[in-house]
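User: Second chain of the day. Same drill as before.
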Amino acid sequence: MSMISAISLWLIPIIIGLILIYGTIKKVPTYEKFVEGGKEGIQIAFSIIPFLVGMLVAISIFRASGALEFFINLFRPLFDLVGIPPDIVPLALIRPISGTAALGMTTDLIATHGPDSFIGRLASTMQGSTDTTFYVLTVYFGAVGIKKMGDALKVGLLADLVGIVATIVVVTIAFA
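Assistant: Same format as last time:
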């Protein structure tokens, strides 16, 4: 077994052990605190379910209605002019909304075009260069009761746009 494998195998149990030892030394009831944390986690999970259901329904309606295909076909000449493969556009649109849907699209693109193809590399890089902005805002902001999220939405979408543009430029320079 290599040194890195051994370290990675033992690191988390050692950290957990050190936390428990430190808590015991400080006379913190560690088991009780662990149970309290578990209760809070379950409460948070139940509180975010309505936000998740709403977001998933909206994504399904957007895709099933044909709005996504309509958008892609409407702007196809512009995408071709700029050098953006139309196959990657749905991923760029869905990634800020749902990580699971984006991962499914990335998997489909890689299965269709291959992992070493330009589109496969573009999809993989985009998957890692952007975030699920709407998911973060609806779930996490909703769970803690933040109502005003306009500025966070603008910054998150701007970061996603920068990630998408940077992905296209870098992958084009490196692999095209």
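The chain has a mean pLDDT of 86.

User: Great, on to the next one.
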